[in-house]
Amino acid sequence: MRRGFLLFALCVTGLFYGWNRAITRDGLARYLDAHPKTFKADALLSSLGSYHELFSHHGQAISMYERVVRNYPKSPRAEACQFGVASNFERLKNFDRARQEYEKYIEEYPEGRYAASVKKNIEILKGL
């Protein structure tokens, strides 16, 4: 019984370590860069960006979101990812770059889901 539990605990630990390493070291993102036609790659990168954003890894979130915007511009997730890039730069207090990314959002998605919020953010950031 103990041996079975020990084996189970070891497998769970190994799975967690491998998953965490794949996410935090960009292993999965590098794979998707090398194989851009992977099924739902845009959804996976967007989800990884959200994961990093959730744990305040803003630099890594930006990296994931930028990959979606760059590699899958026609994706339904590209708009949210462009907004994610800008908002994460804002969280990093890189206000000039955040404003540039918000302006890029308005250029690409003038009637987008976040357009009203983005316009307000641009005005606020111009005042800083």
Multimeric state of these chains?
single chain
Rounded to the nearest angstrom, the radius of gyration is 18 Å
Please tell me the overall pLDDT. 87
SSE sequence, one letter per element: HHHHHHH
Estimate the strand proportion. under 5%
How many beta strands in the DSSP annotation?
0
Shape: elongated
Count of helical regions: 7
Head-to-tail CA distance between termini:
63 Å
> What percent of the residues sit in helical stretches (DSSP H or I)?
over 70%
Can you identify the CATH superfamily? Answer: Tetratricopeptide repeat domain
Q: What is the count of distinct domains?
A: 1
Predict the CATH topology.
Answer: Serine Threonine Protein Phosphatase 5, Tetratricopeptide repeat
Q: Which CATH C-level class is it?
A: Mainly Alpha
Main beta sheet strand tally, sense and closure:
none
Unreliable runs: none
CATH architecture call: Alpha Horseshoe
Structural class: mainly alpha
